[in-house]
Structures are given as structure tokens and as C-alpha cells.
Design brief:
mainly alpha, 2 domains, 73% helix, globular, 14 helices, MetI-like fold
Length: 281
Amino acid sequence: MFKKNAIGKTITTIIMTLISVVYISPIFIVLMNSFKLKTSISASPFVLPGAESYVGLENYMRGITFGDYPFYKSVMYSIFITVFSTLAILLFTSMTAWYITRVDNKICRGIYYFCVFSMIVPFQMVMYTLSKTADTLNLSNPVGIIVVYLGFGAGLAVFMFCGFVKSIPLEIEEAANIDGCGPIRTFFGIVLPIMKPTLISVCILETMWIWNDYLLPYLVLDIKNYRTIPIHIQYLNGSYGQSDIGAIMALIVLSIIPIVVFYFTCQKHIIKGIMAGAVKG
């Protein structure tokens, strides 16, 4: 029996290792090609840089200095939009989830099911009307797009927060009320700290989505004045199919480094937060 378990674990380890290699290989290929000549990337994309193809940091410097739109501005807009959109989602959806879970009337249940339904609506169904609405309401700027991200990110966040709030004993909040805490003080002083595992999980998921998102900023923002990193990278593609593939690879590497570091720093909280929210109400 022990030998069977050991063999099963070994086979599982080998399979998972192979799957991990498959998932990691695209990142390695991009990193490898970011140090190669453009012609070498096209001719042999899966070959390590050699003496003739290695260009050092030339692709990185060319990508950063490309065009008349500074790369640092794209970085700053990406950071601003990602940070404040994530904060808005965490604050407003956690408060919404707590309210609709504790009140639990027909209206609140309707709001909950509406949020859940929004998770399954394809973005392509609403992107044209969304871009028109955002333009009409003057949301085509880094501050306005935060409202748009709040709307799109609310579904998953409310779903996860509601599941976690159901696991919080109501007696804790009743004790806070007896001590004189109002709803606002109860939420920020008692409930929100308890929701930390799910807050971190939602923060990671929303940050990864917003940071890497290309289509929504491209449709909503005035890209002549405001460009995120994915949009900036897209502008490295020239006309008639001409692309500076080396510079593109370099900027892709620069764009994924922050989010990869962020993910590996916080990854241990993802499963904890999802399991904490996976309860039956």
C-alpha cells in the first residue's frame, strides 16, 4: 500500500512538473528573445542567444525610447489605474457584500444575483455601448476608467466577499453593537479586519486582471493622451505588418516583472481566501 502511494505521488509530481514547464516556457521564450536581434528572433525563436544574435540591453533601450510618448508615462498610468481601481473594488464591494448578506431581503438577493450574472456576460456584448457611454459621461481618462473597472470587477468580488461574510459569526457584530458601535464602525473596526484573507485574494486577482488588461483601456481611454503599458507595447507594431519584435519582447518582460513579483509575494493567500469564502449560506 505504501509503495502504491509513493508511486502515485511520484507520477503526480512528474505530471505536474511537465505541466509547469509548459506554462513557464512562453515566459522563458519571451525573456530569451528579448536579448536577440530582430532577424534572429524571426529565424530561430526557440534558440538561445549566441555570439552573433545577442544584443544585450539594446532591445530594452529601444523599446523604452520608442516614439514620442514616454514609456514612463505609460508605467505611471498603469500603476495609477491598477492601484486605485483595485482599492475602489475592495472598498465598495466588501461593503456591499456585508450589507446584502446581513440584510438578506428580496432587494439584496436581487443585487447579489445581478452581480453573479454579470460574471458570465461576455465583454464583447457590451464593449461598444460601454465605450459610447464612457465617452458621453467623460470617463475617457485615468480617473473615469476606475469607475468602469469597479463595475466590471464587482461581480467576482461581491461573490467572494458574500461567501466569506456568511462564515463570520453574527454574535461578534451584535457584541460590537452592544458596546456602542454603529454600522460604519462595526464594519471597519470588526468585519473588515476579519475579511483579510478574502481581501488579499480579491486584491491579487483584480490587480493581475487590471494590470494586464488591454482591450478595456483601449476602448475607453483617450489613447492620444493616456496609454497603459499594454497599449504602449501595441504601438511598437508598425504599418504594413512591420514590428520591432525585439523591443516588444523587451517591454513585455518589463511589464510582467512587477505582476509576477506581486503574485509570488501574495500567492499563499489566494487558496486561503478562496477556501474561506467557499461556504454554504
